[in-house]
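G., the chain you wanted modeled:
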Amino acid sequence: MKVFKSVALLVQAVALTVASWGVSAQANYPDKPIRMIIPLATGSAVDNALRLVAQNMATSMGQPIVIENVPGSSGLIGADRMLKMPADGYTIGGVNDSVLTMVPHINPNTTFNTLKDFAPISLIGTIEWGVVVKTDSQFKTLEDLIKFAKANPDKLTFSSGGVGSPQHIAMALLMQRAGMKLVHVPYKGATQAAVGAAAGEVDVSFQGLGTAAALINGGKLRLLALSTPKPLPQFAGVKTIDQTALPGFFFNSWAAMVAPAKTPKAIVEKLSAEARKAMDNADIRDRFTKLGITIRGTTPAEFEAALKKQYELYGNVIKENNIKAN
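Predicted structure as tokens:
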């Protein structure tokens, strides 16, 4: 009996020691560089936003945040790679809503469960959107485009960052509401889709303003209408879809940070607090505004609630529009 008691005490002591090591590691977090995997191409609105916040977080925490872009398969490759890493807070993900709430409903090869395999850190911001055409397009207003498209089904083309991408879903919603039919031309990313519209390779694109802003400001794209609740001062004179063609129509997307589900709660909370702190930076707020991004900065719990709601919403939209992976 004494032997068993001694063994039990030894096991208990070891368990307490291991637990204390874990607490100490979390208290000292981070004590080495953090890697952020972004399953998207560089240059998108989401990529731009996440880089700005990560840079500020790194300065505050005293450790670099190394960005690794892993595009491919509509974000599934990068998301899967991030989830296979140790859940210790040293590998996190920077994602858009498509990767978590759209693609899983479309691609049967999705290897994760959005609502179980990720630990929400913070919803960084919402990317405001708008309908764009080449600067010398025959369409001067969204009403003009809708009128032509309804009279000429499948005559016009639109670009997106891929099947099931936010650009694809946004245009599917617009076509559904307007009663028009356009031909989908998927590209390898949002940036390429915007450039394709600017080059006249397609007739129109529904884009996040953070992606298209440089082309709009550079005179390569014309912004026909915004999908925001109200006009934006940085795009003076441009009306909303709600004000003009389709009352009640709104669309945006978001940039967010996540971690593998088993990441210690204390580390998730620390990362979330640092992200929210970064978004209080006046320079970041100004740059977000210019990119057409509305700062959110949610807590993990707030982001989790928003994630569940949007996952269900887009699941229904995708099913109703019969959107499937190629």
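The radius of gyration is 22 Å.

Shout if anything looks off.
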